[in-house]
Amino acid sequence: LLDVIMLDERSYRGVNTTNRQTSLSDETRFLGSAQLEWVKQRLLSSKATWKVIASDMPVGIVVKDGANFEAFANGDGPALGREMELAGLLSFIKKNRIKNVVWVTADVHYCAAHHYDPARAQFTDFDPFWEFVAGPLNAGTFGPGEMDNTFGPEVKFTGIPKGMKPNRSPKEGLQFFGAVKIDGASGAMTVSLHDINGTKLHSVELSPEV
After folding, report:
1. Is the pTM higher than 0.70?
2. What is the pLDDT of the chain when averaged over all its residues?
């Protein structure tokens, strides 16, 4: 029912830049060509109903590093910089009709559920998909982050309010985790987001495409 494909977005990346390059290079490298090819082959060979991509960094949340950018997103517009690797992977998934790909991501210090759709996007050569963000278990709480419109995200849920004072202490209870359950009979996947006490804050049931 499930394959989990874990990405390493720390070991092969180039340095953080303004992330607006128009062609692939060492500067735009995030996964790197070898890892990207490995991910594609894992997706192609998977016989599981659900293919979950576990990503160190979020897909559409803007993560700043001073004047530079730390994740894929660079702040709206067409696919540029590190976004080009991601755009290529999403196009590959669509071209090869790989169904039921879900992203679970981290790095940012709050929880959220995002739905991406080419009908809302600047880059459109991909199938709609979900991203679920959860974290941290014990660190200062920040966010919510600005969303980049390149891949057409819609924020379905966020666990903290806009304008919140940053770096809230873990003692305030704004710590989060996610849970995934797959029904053995129907194959439906339920993803839920919880606070530190285990209270369910948000839940989405996804029916598998065939």
Report:
1. yes
2. 96
Residue 132 β-bridge partners:
104, 113
Strand order in the sheet with 200-206: 176-182, 189-195, 200-206
What is the pLDDT at residue 138?
87
Instruction: Say whether pLDDT at 93 is over 90.
Output: yes
Cβ neighbours of residue 11 under 8 Å, at least 6 residues apart?
Answer: none
Residue 34 phi/psi, 5-degree rounding, is: -65, -45
Give the 3-state DSSP-derived string for the chain, with helices as H, strands as E and coil as C: CEEEEECCCCCCCCCCECCCCCCCCCCCCCCCHHHHHHHHHHHHHCCCCEEEEEECCCCCECCEECCEECCCCCCCCCCCCCHHHHHHHHHHHHHCCCCCEEEEECCCCCCEEEEECHHHCCCCCCCCEEEEECCCCCCCECCCCCECCCCCEEEEEECCCCCCCCCECHHHCCCEEEEEEECCCCCCEEEEEEECCCCEEEEEEECCCC
List residues bridging with 104 in a β-sheet. Answer: 54, 132
Strands 2-6 vs 50-55: parallel, antiparallel or unpaired: parallel
* Residue 139 · residue 171 · CB < 8 Å: no
